[in-house]
Structures are given as C-alpha cells and as structure tokens.
Amino acid sequence: MVLAPRTGLGDNPLTKKKKLRLDHSTLHLVTRLAKEGIRPYAGKIFLALCLMAVVAATTAMSAWLMDPVVNKVFVERRHDMLWTVGLAVFGAAVVKGIANYGQTALMSFVGLRIIADLQDRLFRHMLTQDIAYFHATTTGRLLSRFSTDTNLIRAAVSNALVSFGKDSLSVIFLVGVMFYQDWTLAAISFFIFPLTILPIVKLGQRIRRVTANTQEEWGLFSTLVEQCFQGIRVVKAYGMASYETLRVSAIVEKIFKLNYRASRTRAWSSPIMETIGGVAVTVVVIYGGSRVIEGTTTAGAFFSFITALLMAYQPMKALAGLNANLQEGLSAAQRVFEVLDTRPSIQDAPGASPLDIRGGAIHFDNVHFSYGPEKGALQGLSLDVPPGATVALVGPSGAGKSTIQNLIARFYDVQGGTITVDGQNVRDVQLASLRAAMALVSQEVVLFDDTIRANIAYGREGASQEEIEAAARGAAAHDFITQLPQGYDTTVGEHGVKLSGGQRQRLAIARAMLRNAPILLLDEATSALDTESERAVQSALDALMQGRTTLVIAHRLSTITHADLIYVIDQGRVAEKGTHADLLTQNGLYARLHALQQAAPRENGHGAS
Description:
The protein is an alpha/beta fold. The protein contains 21 helices and ten strands.
C-alpha cells in the first residue's frame, strides 16, 4: 500500500477547507484593539502624535522654502537671503530628524509593549482552559497565536498609528502648502486621488481573506513539524522520513502559494498609486508650467507647489498601503480574540467554598461520562474510597480507570451523577483547593526543560533543598541524581529526554512525595522501574500512603495485592470489588487477569512475580 502525503491531522479544524469566518466588522475589531491594547499607552501615543505633527510641519516647511530659494536666491540673486534660507532649511532638517527619532522610539515601545501584553494575556487565558480544549486544539495552532498573529497585530497597530499620525499630518500640511501657493492647481491635482479609494478597499479585503487562510496553514505546519520532531525515533525506526517530508512539503507549497497571492495583491496598490500620481504630476507640469510662462504665477511658487506634491506622494502611498497592513492585522486580531473569548466550561460555581479536607473520602454516585458521541466511558458507576485507605482500580484497557481519576480532579465534569470528597460535591468547591488536596503521578511522566531540583519542587513553591532531597531519597532517585554532572542542577531536557524512563518516573514520584497532599492519585506509578528500584519506591509509596487516601490504577496486579479495596472496572461499570484474596475466590474477571499475568512469566521461563 502506498501512503499518499496528507496535510491533515484527523478531525482538527485546521484540516477543513472552510475559510475563516470574517463576521467581525473592521470597525468592531479596530475599536476592540484600541480599547484593550492601545488605550493603556494613550499618553505615549499622544506624545508620539505631537512629534509626528512636528515632522509633518517641518516636511511642509521644506517644501514651502522652495519658494524663497527659487525667487529670492536664484531669480533675484539676493546674497542676504542665501544664509537665511540655507539655515532655515538646515534647522528644519535637524528638528525633523529629532522629532522623527522620538516618535519612532515611542511607537516602537508601544508596539512591542502591546505584543508583550497580548502574549502574556493569551498565555494566562489559555492556562484557564479545560484539558478538553487542549485535546481538541493542535499545539501548532496555539503557538501561531503567540508568534505570527501577535506580530501581525503589532505591525498593523504601529503602521496604523504612524500612517494616521505622521503620514496623514504630512499630507495635510503639504496640501496646505499647495493650496497656499496655487489653490486652483491644488484642486485640479487632488480631484484625481479619490478614484483610488475603491480599488484599495477591495485589495484590503482580499488580503484579509488570504492572510486568514495563511495563518491557519501556518498553525498546521507548526503542528506537523512538532509532532515529527517529538516522534523522531519512530520516524527513523520505521523509515518514514520521506513520507513526513511529503506531508510537510505539501503544506509548505500551500503556504508559498498563499503568501505569493498576498504579495501580488499587496503589490497592486503601487501601480495604482503610481498611475494616479503620474497623472497628477503631468497635469501640474502642463497646467502649472503654462501659468508660469504666462506670468500668472512665479517660478518659486510653482517649484514650491510641485515639491510639496512630490513630497506628499510617499505618505499618500503609505496611506494607500495602510489598508492592506491593517486587514492583515485585523485577521490576526480576530483569531486571537476568538481564543480570548473562549471560556472554560469547568469553573468555580458561584459562591464556591474551599474544600474542607477531613479524611479524604471519595464517593462516586451513579456517575455517567462520555468523551464524545460514542459509547460512554462511565455508565452509572458507583464506588467508595474510604478515608485513608488504599483503593486500586484494575481492569482491561479502555475500561474507564483513568477517566475516574480525571473526574476526581475535575479535569472533566460528570454528565450525570455526583462525585464527593468528604461529602462535598467537587463541583461546589473551589477548583484550586480541590486540586491542591491531590498529588498525581501518571504513567505518562511530564517533566519540564528545567533542572531536576525545579522539576521535583514543581507545585511546591518555596521547598527547601533538604525537603527536595528527602523526597528524592524516598523515590529512590537521590543516588542517580548525585551521579549526574551537575547533580540537582542538571537540566533534564525537553520532556526529560536526557533521562531514562525509570529515572523520569522516579522524579515524578519525588514530586508527588514533596507535595505531601492528603489524596494520592497513582496511575501505574512504578511501571517504568526495574525490579530493584520498584521495590525501593514501593516501600516509599507504602510509607507515603499511610494516613492518606490513595487511588491506584494498576495493570500489574502484583503491585496492589495489599490494597485495602480493589475495584474491577469493565466497560464503564464496577464489575467486581473486594480484597485481593476475596476477588481470587470469586473466580471472575480479576481472577482471570491474575491467572494470565501469573502464566506469562512462566511461559517466558521466569518465576511468578
């Protein structure tokens, strides 16, 4: 079978061809950007606008000075005006340069501050989202909001403020000079420019649509690359480098075509303005030149006029291109606001009180839950975890064991029934206090690209070195940590790639030990350990479990034989419950699983564990 390159990732929204909806009006997006991003820096923006006015005034002054330069210096040959006019031109240039530097520095600060604030706000908001949100949204798509989208917004804001400030003011001052020198000629010249408005607006709309689709493709590209790099061992082991290359190449080609289309569309503003500008200059030269020849105006006034016209051309061209830049930024703003407007479904109920932990008793009463339209993960499940007891969950893969732990911590909310901790409904207590009462060690160990010390102390701010080392000793991790080049200051790499699977799991257990929470959630916490380390860690876990409520998900039944109570979960329901000895005598699912695990080592030539 030949694998054709594909560009999608399952049912992710990025794979759909539907174009990004443009249901947000330009006015609405501009207003919201101004309110949420620009208003905090109104003072600096006002000062920048004042400096822009100085730049515009000195630009117009340079054009106006062409009148005395031509009439007084070149025509009348007045030596007394030579230094006066020359110093005036020099002074205008110096003032313009200083003011231009000031407004550029201020606008750079405002633009960069806006993007920093937006990135910080985005990150804070994303951390409030439900786990289901991250499962439904690709990492690349989220990262594109922080990088390309926020930078497009910064560019749009900076360009918009500069164009509406310096460029528009420069045009106004220069047009004032033109009307002062020859109002008839000025009126004729600018009668042509309104013709550019309609095509410029149309170009901006096209660029906004293309930009929206380009950003979606960039999100998909980032996701594909990230998944490939994270799974590089599998890619190489299965010889799939060519296949992954084809997938990424297809996305790169789509991005190229979209960017090229946007560039072509953006480039149309230049020939439009060049043509209109050429017509205006031609009219000025022919009509204005004839007026000079006829003596109805002076050569100085004409040169001052045409200088102002030519100097006005560049800011007018910038204003014409502003719409394209603004639409790119608004497309990015719409995508960012869609994230900021997403509200988590799992929140504190009104009037929620802190969880009052007394013994840590957990009770499931007829709980129903499903991850989607398919068959429910839990179907009327009821169980009890007595305070201070160690309760194990066993059963086939997909039976609902991990779902039970996810619901206790409110990573998801039940769709029927109730879950209580010490008699308090988990949906009625403050979420932070609920999770603060729990420590989680998952089979999928999560370590951050930081030091070993920071990873162990994660979730326990202010922990001392002695406490960190005690937790590491308890998790049988201290010895291997001290043998590393920098000891506890060793950086573990992305996802702990510099450590073995067993080492990573021991750090996760040390993290849970340091947290010292009254409720422990263990999901096959010793699965990646060798026999010797497992025995050491299991002894530490046994000590840690004393006086605490512990819910253990176990696949190796030998690790939970001493549990106070064992629930056998099958197809979202409790199939059996009892102690290890009780369940063996029932000769049901647990007994069959136990027999299979006992038989497996003997078939491989090993003794039973």
